[in-house]
């Protein structure tokens, strides 16, 4: 059953592929401006695609009739009917495109016979105008690309300038931080030195006071013994 489903999907994909290819070829037939050989080649390709499409629709119809489940069978046969209607629609479009293209080619041939060189001159003029327009379009596209590239270069230059300015600011800030660090370290040394000096001064004052008191005590003691 799984293998059958795979074959059904492959068949449907090929039907869709042929349908799209036929639509594209019919459009080419409709836009064909000659010569007749070119139109004949396009019609041969369309005919071959229709034959392939018809065979694949027949294969899908056979697969649908061989389905075990009635629901699957009806679903596939419905798809077959839809594909056949689409094929008929493509055939109608092909005939219309073929007729329009043949009429256009016949008119061009009649005009060529009636006006001879004038027709060829007009054709050359149209061709030159088309080439000039194409050249103008290409030039405009190149100029547009050039403007875009110029804008990108300008933006890149502005970005580089901004990065350079930011980098300089970072360097200056780093130098300031270094200077502040040096100042802080110097202040710390001075504070440490001051604290040590203050401790030394207090110790000297204490020793001087102790010596003074000892001297006073000694004098008083000596006088006291003298009066005794």
How would you summarize this macromolecular structure in one to three sentences?
The chain is mainly α.
Structure, described:
The chain is mainly α. Helix 1 packs parallel to helix 3 and helix 2 packs antiparallel against helix 3.
Q: What would you call the shape?
A: elongated
Helix content: over 70%
For the largest beta-sheet, the strand count, sense and barrel status come to: none
Mean pLDDT rating: 75
- What is the rounded Rg? 52 Å
First CA to last CA: what distance?
A: 142 Å
Strand content: under 5%
| Estimated structural class | mainly alpha
**How many H/I helices?**
4
Low-confidence stretches: 124-128
Transmembrane segments: 203-220
Membrane topology: Single-pass type IV membrane protein
GO molecular function, one term: SNAP receptor activity
Main location: endoplasmic reticulum
Which properties best describe this structure?
mainly alpha; SNAP receptor activity; about 230 residues
